[in-house]
Write a structure and sequence with these properties.
mainly alpha, about 240 residues, globular
């Protein structure tokens, strides 16, 4: 446990990232308490563990001069993803009540809305950095993975939905074996749009549990989203291979 909290509490000289992380501890504790009391202590404890892991990674990979307001916005999204991960584990363990499912949809929607904020803040304040871009991408990927697991756990769609959450990690794993896939990609607005479509489709699929919409409707949206994601990654891979 000391290893996990060392970047947050045990360093003699704290950087900007550590102050932000310490500030985030309060809403984390309050949120975990509310989730445990109202929904599930399994979800609360899982969210807390995920936050410790997130804090460790952020404190070790960020620098005081690069962690700014825009990164703090991404940190808020990361905090939300921690709670989503807790609810996803609860879905795997024994399902979710309608109140828990509604909570998950609300948190996911808020995280999705904030996804368009951190980039704008970074550009407006001239705070763009390699760390901030990576932090944003990894937060997006983690959210999609958690939501796709929940959709499958609740029986809303088949196991093929996991491909949405696993695509990014499969691409990174493949890049370890294929050097060409490490070629930096140009910024593509279409890639960001397609990532947002994945989150919207997954959240819409989760809302089926709260409405009377036919399951095939959500399945159609998920298939369309997955097809767009395959095209996005496929076109990126082809471009990188041609550059090598």
């Amino acid at each position: 446990m000391k290893t996990l909290v060392t970047p947050l509490l045990w360093t003699g000289r704290r950087g900007a990232s550590e102050y932000w992380l310490l500030a985030a501890c309060w809403p984390m504790v309050l949120g975990a308490t509310l989730v445990g009391w109202q929904l599930s202590w399994l979800s609360a404890s899982t969210a807390t563990f995920c936050f410790l892991v997130l804090g460790t990674l952020v404190a070790r990979h960020s620098r005081a001069r690069t962690f700014r307001v825009a990164d703090a916005v991404t940190l808020v999204r990361g905090l939300g993803v921690c709670f989503l991960a807790g609810l996803a584990l609860q879905a795997l363990a024994g399902g979710l009540t309608k109140r828990a499912l509604l909570t998950m949809i609300i948190i996911g929607t808020l995280c999705l809305l904030l996804d368009g904020v951190d980039g704008r803040v970074a550009r407006a304040r001239s705070e763009a950095s390699a760390f901030g871009a990576r932090f944003d991408v990894e937060t997006d990927a983690a959210m999609l993975a958690v939501l796709s697991v929940t959709v499958v756990a609740l029986g809303i769609a088949g196991w093929w939905v996991l491909a949405i959450g696993a695509m990014r990690y499969g691409y990174v794993a493949t890049s370890l074996l294929v050097p060409a896939l490490r070629t930096p990609l140009p910024n593509r607005y279409s890639g960001k749009v397609i990532a947002v479509i994945q989150a919207v489709a997954l959240l819409a699929a989760l809302s089926v549990g709260l409405t009377h919409v036919e399951p095939w409707v959500s399945t159609t949206f998920l298939l369309a989203a997955l097809a767009a994601l395959c095209w996005s990654f496929g076109s990126s891979v082809i471009w990188q291979l041609r550059q090598s």
